[in-house]
Automatic annotation (TrEMBL):
Signal peptide (residue range): 1-19
Gene3D superfamilies: At5g01610-like (2.30.240.10)
PANTHER family: T31J12.3 PROTEIN-RELATED, TRANSMEMBRANE PROTEIN
Protein name: Uncharacterized protein
Length: 156
């Protein structure tokens, strides 16, 4: 077995062990991100050797940072220190519209700020808003909120 293969195998084992023995909240903190980026109803997550993070929730849910955010049942992103890039499965409500969150970045933890890239704009939030998320809406509540939003859009 070559040295490169052995290193890759060891790294893979470490990542799998890390994913199996700690919570997503611990992983986020070890990567310079706040623990409260994901709600407590995470049932499983995986992190591959290229840094692709896949988080599985019990069900889609709504939570609130400064505005409401919607989590699909599966959220994917590329994880590196202080960054979740290329996010899929996470949307943020802005002025009655649900916009996909593309990236989440903490460039300087001492600033107390976190940056949400929602495509058309960048939004800075206080890191203190991102404690462990405990408020999670049920699927029926989410569907009702989305139905109300569609009705509002149709009336415009």
């Amino acid at each position: 077995m070559s040295l490169t293969s052995m290193f890759s195998f060891t790294l893979c084992l470490l990542l799998l062990t890390h994913a199996a023995t700690s919570s997503i909240h611990d992983l986020l903190q070890s990567q310079g991100l706040p623990a409260g980026l994901f709600p407590e109803n995470v049932k499983a997550y995986s992190l591959d050797q290229t840094g692709v993070l896949e988080v599985h929730l019990d069900q889609p849910c709504l939570a609130k940072f400064e505005t409401r955010v919607y989590f699909d049942s599966v959220v994917r992103a590329n994880l590196s220190f202080g960054k979740l890039k290329g996010l899929e499965g996470l949307s943020q409500e802005e002025l009655f519209l649900w916009l996909p969150v593309k990236d989440i970045i903490v460039t300087d933890p001492s600033s107390g700020l976190i940056l949400f890239d929602i495509g058309v704009a960048h939004k800075q939030l206080s890191l203190s808003l991102l404690r462990i998320l405990q408020f999670v809406n049920s699927r029926s509540s989410i569907e009702k909120d989305r139905s109300n939003e569609r009705e509002f859009q149709e009336q415009r």
